[in-house]
Amino acid sequence: MADHIFYTASDAEIKAGKTTDIYFRRTKEILEERNVDTEVVAEVSCGGLPRNWQWGVLCGVGEAAKLFEGYGVDVDAMPEGSIFKPRDKNGVRVPVMNIKGIYREFCELETPLLGLICQASGVSTSSARIRKILGGKQILSFGIRRMHPSISPVLDRAAYIGGFDSVSGVLSAERIGIKPAGTMPHALIITLGDQVKAWKTFDDVLPEEIPRIALCDTYFDEKTESIMAAESMKNLEGVRLDTPGSRKGNFKEIIQEVRWELDIRGHRDVKIFVSGGLNEDSARELKDCADGFGVGTYVSNAPTIDFAMNIVEIDKKPVAKRGVFGGEKQIYRCPECFEDACALVDDTVLECDGCGEEMTPLLKPLIRNGKIVSDLPDAKEIRNKVLKELEKVEVI
Question: Cα-flanking dihedrals φ and ψ of residue 108, to 5°?
Answer without folding.
Answer: -70, -10
